[in-house]
Design a protein that fits this description.
Layout lengths: L10 E5 L6 H9 L4 E3 L2 E3 L13 E3 L2 H9 L3 E7 L3 E6 H10 L2 E5 L2 H10 L4 E6 L3 H11 L4 H15 L7 E4 L3 H15 L3 H14 L3
Parallel strand pairs: 1-7, 1-8, 2-7, 3-4, 8-9
Antiparallel strand pairs: 3-6, 5-6
């Protein structure tokens, strides 16, 4: 991002059912220069492959509720009735200070909250090509009981009903193509009128207003 005046960061919201491949597509967006990831807070324990501070900051439920009480979250939600997830407002402040654009990878409930608070944010819905494909992906992770798998599939059905609240949909049936699509959305969103309004006014002034 360039220009004499600090611009508001573009915020990309990426969400979709658990197992749809959001994290992989977010990595594709982060390959585009000047995008940074918002690190969410969660009360769930880290998985073996996860390091604190890369994708999540892991906090206790008491710490999380204290952050809620202090108004430190852009959005937060309880997922599957147990673990809490939230997007810290400081991520937005950091993106503004660093002149980066911000990527939020959040669940559908949180995405709807964030879109209400940031109406200029661009929301991308990642979809699996079918229920059978999603079930296969969830089973291949080997992390969930049969009951949990059923809950995740039913939740996915409910989440897909919210598709019209999003600006774009990417059907993740081919990773290479889906990756190109999210990168194209990221780059194209930087050229929206509301995103470039400050620079447009500067150019107009150079013509004498």
């Amino acid at each position: 991002m360039s220009g004499a005046e600090p611009a508001e960061p573009l915020v990309l919201i990426v969400s979709g059912p658990s197992g749809s491949g959001k994290s992989t597509l977010v990595q594709k967006i982060l390959e585009v220069p000047d995008f940074m990831l918002s690190v969410s807070c969660t009360t769930r324990p880290p998985r073996k492959t996860e390091a604190a501070g890369k994708w999540y900051n892991f906090v206790s439920e008491a710490e999380f509720q204290q952050m809620v009480a202090r108004g430190e979250f852009l959005e937060y939600a309880q997922v599957f009735g147990k673990n809490w997830y939230g997007t810290p407002l400081k991520s937005l402040e950091e993106a503004r200070a660093r002149q980066k654009d911000l990527v939020l990878e959040i669940d559908v409930q949180g995405a709807l909250q964030a879109k209400q608070k940031l109406p200029n944010a661009v929301a991308i819905f990642v979809l699996p090509p079918s229920r059978a494909d999603l079930e296969r992906r969830i089973r291949e992770r080997g992390q969930d009981s049969e009951d949990e798998i059923r809950r995740r599939l039913e939740r996915a059905r409910q989440e897909i009903l919210n598709y019209s609240a999003y600006d774009f949909v990417v059907i993740n049936d081919n990773l290479e193509r889906a990756g190109r699509e999210v990168q194209a959305i990221a780059l194209g969103s930087r050229c929206r009128i509301q995103q470039e309004e400050g620079r447009i006014h500067g150019i107009l002034e150079s013509f004498g207003g």
